[in-house]
Amino acid sequence: MKEKCSWPHSGRQKVRSRMRVYSATDVGKKREINQDYVFTSDIPVGHLPNLFVVADGMGGHNAGDYASSHGVMTLVEEITGDAEYNPVKVIRHAVEKANTWIFGKASQEESYSGMGTTMVVATIIGGFLYVANIGDSRLYVIDREIRQVTRDHSLVQEMVRLGEINPDEARSHPKKNIITRALGAEKTVDVDFFDLKLTENSVVLMCSDGLSNMVEDRKIEEIVHREDISLEEKGKELVREANNNGGKDNIAIILIEPFASEVG
């Protein structure tokens, strides 16, 4: 398991933060290559006060791994240098830049042809959560209950929205891994944005489908609501549960307690 895959912030002093964050990726039980990638920073990245990203790559050989990691690197670099302050504009600019980079690389080099990545991006500003999503990686907010904030860009979720199948049927549908939107798939990318106000008890969970396909929402909620274990232990338990249920894909998670006690 890889944990706390954060981008280096050279020359910056870490400031005190009320957040508590845990992140990890795991190859799972069936895959040989880990194509999931996470980024976390509870200190400023450009004009954003914090930044969290989950990416799930696709493509043969190392192409999916390359797409997810370099897509996130490009996104972070773009955010770092953006003069804009509006978080939606900052994230949109960066996602579009990452899409252009991945699409260009895939178009120019045969070994990377067809590569792409999902991406869910979040920042928390003044108690409000701002989220961007492309693909079927997810962001949940868990307080009194679990709520999926993002909408999956997948063939099966389109079928659910059209009433052709129900959510229970979607979990075991043979085409559940076919996504309808990804970074690098087309020259331009359509990004979904969401924003909501968090409560003092909110916990944010970002994950790849290696978790959400393997662990039902009610079980995720049960683990996150446990009061006898730390945030890190909750994260490890989520990964363990996904692997115990088959671990059919790579697993990526970020858990955030936005209003935790101050830490040094």
Describe the 3D structure.
- The chain is an alpha+beta fold and 264 residues long.
- It has one domain: PPM-type phosphatase domain (Phosphatase 2c, domain 1), CATH 3.60.40.10.
- It has helices at residues 63-81, 87-108, 155-161, 167-171, 209-212, 217-224, 231-244, and strands at residues 2-3, 20-26, 36-41, 51-58, 116-125, 128-134, 138-142, 146-148, 192-197, 203-207, 251-257.
- The strands form two sheets. The chain has a six-stranded antiparallel beta sheet with strand order 1-2-11-10-7-8. A five-stranded antiparallel beta sheet has the order 3-4-5-6-9.
- A hairpin with a 3-residue loop joins strand 7 (138-142) and strand 8 (146-148).
- Helix 1 packs antiparallel against helix 2.
- The longest helix has 22 residues, at 87-108.
- The radius of gyration is 17 Å and the shape is globular.
- The two termini are 26 Å apart.
- The relative contact order is 0.20.
- Residues 3-16 have low confidence and may be disordered.
- Spans of at least 5 consecutive residues with low confidence: 3-16
Helix content: 25-40%
CATH homologous superfamily label = PPM-type phosphatase domain
Molecular shape: globular
CATH class: Alpha Beta
Going by CATH, the architecture would be 4-Layer Sandwich
Mean pLDDT: 89
Task: Give the tally of structural domains.
Answer: 1
Give the helix/strand class.
Answer: alpha+beta
Give the count of helical stretches: 7
Major sheet: size, sense and barrel closure? 6 strands, antiparallel
Kindly report the spatial arrangement of strands forming the biggest sheet.
Answer: 1-2-11-10-7-8
